[in-house]
C-alpha cells in the first residue's frame, strides 16, 4: 500500500520520543476469575520514527519491570520476584515493531512486533489508533509538534514465562490473558528531511 492510500490528517514524518508525563503503560488481568486487577509501569521510554510513508513507521520501547504499580505495595513486591517478573534478573520488557498495516476505520492500524519479557521473545500485534498530530503547546520556541497514539492488545503471560499461579477452589487466582493498554503522547525531536 502506498502513502497516498493512507491519509492521516496533520501527519508529520520524523523521530519522536515519548512524553512520559503524559503517557501510560497499563495492564489488566483477571483476579479470582470474577474481577480485574489493573496496574501500570511508571518507568519507560520509547522512540518512534514516522516514515514518509506511514506504513514504513516503526517503534522501539523499553519498560522497567521494577516500576510496576498496582496500588498495593505488597502485591507489587511479589510481582517483582522470580515467581512473576523476576525483575532482578530481567530488569526490562522490550518491544520492537516489525510491521504496520491499515485496519478498519479511519486512523486505525495493526502494529506487529516482538515483545520480550523475562528473556522470552514472542510476536504480538497491537490495535493502534492514531489520536492525532498537532503543534506542541509546550515548545517555548514554537514550531514543535506532538502526536498521540492508543495501542491495545492481549498477551498470554504464560508464553513469556510468567506462569506462576495459585490454585483456588473453582479455578486459579490469576487469569492467563493480560490486557495491555498504551496511551502515548510523543514529542517530535527530529523532523524528517
Automatic annotation (TrEMBL):
SUPFAM superfamilies: YceI-like. Transmembrane segments: none annotated. Residues 15-187 form the Lipid/polyisoprenoid-binding YceI-like domain. Signal peptide: none annotated. Belongs to the UPF0312 family. This is YceI family protein. It comes from Actinomadura logoneensis. The lineage of its organism: Bacteria, Bacillati, Actinomycetota, Actinomycetes, Streptosporangiales.
